[in-house]
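Moderator note: this is an archived Q&A kept for reference. The question asked for a predicted structure of one protein chain; the sequence and the answer are reproduced below.
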Amino acid sequence: MKKVFAALAAGVMASAMALSLAACAEPEEESLIDRAEEMVSERIASRETWEAAFADPTLGATDTSYTFNNANYSIEAETLITVSGNEPSGERIDLHNRTKTSLTVAGDKLRCSYRLERWGADASDLQLSEEKEQYYALGDGRYIRYSVENGSWIPSFATRLDLSLLSATGGETSLTWTSEHTGSLTSYAGSYESFTWSDERQGYTIPVRATLNEFLGLTVNATLTLKFREGKIAAMLISDAAIDPGISTDGLLLTDIAASVDTGVIVTYGGRTVTLPA
């Protein structure tokens, strides 16, 4: 692993829905997708400035160097996939897949989390819910890994990280990127000339394609937007996804199929803390 930085844009996520509490409900937390969309990017004047914006916060630490070089940052990602279509009976069905993930590095500790939800026509029709969390701390020439076993946090030792921090936000089984890039933020460091500034999106855009593996294998076209702040990569947004008009849907049980993919990634530098589980 060359850099301990980046997040997949291919995760599958969205913010959880807040419950209404009579006349005194708390406002629903704004989703990462909305935050990424609302962010206004700085303009990048040169290739050199662009490449410097993707510099590794861990200063070159690798998965076997046993150091995070006192880096302090977090990457949060959220993706929502929606597919709808008509069954042979004529009934319209809706399928939703949402993942929300985060990776935080603070000094000599690391925390990563993953949450998956799937539902049908509405959020109350929850079909699957899965949540995972894991911590790493630096040991003497090795990592200390904290995982939940039988409801309790159990420490163990690892001579290397058993996850790639380039894709620590998960969700690869639901979404496969078929463009020349993988969705990892650092994969765009050398693509300055490939992006175009968009006043409408307030960021730098490039067209991308993705295959929805768990949703009939459909291929969608979308727009990927990168945004920068204080000379660093700060956000990525995937939006306006639609089924590739050249893709055949013959043989599928559904007709009149529609699909959408929305992804938001936010990178925050500084002010992060990680507290190991008791």
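Archived answer notes: The chain has a mean pLDDT of 76.
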